[in-house]
Specification:
By secondary structure, the protein is mostly helical. It has one domain. The chain is built from five helices and no strands.
C-alpha cells in the first residue's frame, strides 16, 4: 500500500511534466480517489469471503505491475497522459481492495494484548508515510 501512496505522487509528478496543467493534477487525484472509494465499500466483502492474505498478495502484485509499466513507458519516452490516467484508475481500484484486506488481516499478526499499541504504531506510520512519500517524490 505504501508503494501505491508513492505511486500516486509519481503519477502526479509525471502528469505535471507531461501537461504542465494544474487541472490534470486534480484529474489524477480524482481518478485515483473515486474508484478507491467505490471498491472500498465492496472490499470488505472480499476480505470476508476470501483469504485476506491472498487479496493482499494479489493487490501488491497488480499494484507493482502497474507502477513498473508506467516506469517502463516513461523510460522509453512513450508515456502519454492517457497512460497515466488509466494506470491511476487501476491503482485506485487496487487500493480500494487492498485497504479492507489490510484491516482484516492486521489483527491476526499481533497478539490481543499488543493490538492497541500495534494499531497506534500502524496509524502513525501511515500518517508519516503520507508526509514522507510526497517529500521523497519531489526530490
Amino acid at each position: 500500500m505504501n508503494a501505491l501512496r508513492l505511486g500516486a505522487v509519481v503519477q502526479g509528478l509525471l502528469i505535471w511534466d507531461l501537461t504542465g496543467s494544474v487541472l490534470s493534477l486534480g484529474v489524477i487525484a480524482a481518478v485515483v480517489a473515486l474508484p478507491m472509494m467505490i471498491v472500498n465499500v465492496f472490499g470488505g466483502v472480499l476480505a470476508d469471503r476470501f483469504e485476506a492474505r491472498n487479496i493482499l498478495g494479489g493487490s501488491s502484485l497488480v499494484g507493482a505491475t502497474l507502477l513498473v509499466t508506467l516506469g517502463v513507458l516513461d523510460l522509453n519516452g512513450i508515456v502519454e497522459p492517457w497512460h497515466v490516467v488509466t494506470i491511476a484508475i487501476l491503482s485506485g481500484l487496487v487500493a480500494g481492495a487492498d485497504q479492507p484486506s489490510q484491516q482484516a488481516y492486521f489483527p491476526s499478526l499481533v497478539s490481543g494484548a499488543a493490538l492497541k499499541s500495534a494499531i497506534t504504531i500502524k496509524g502513525s506510520l501511515l500518517a508519516s508515510a503520507s508526509v514522507v512519500a510526497p517529500t521523497l517524490g519531489d526530490c
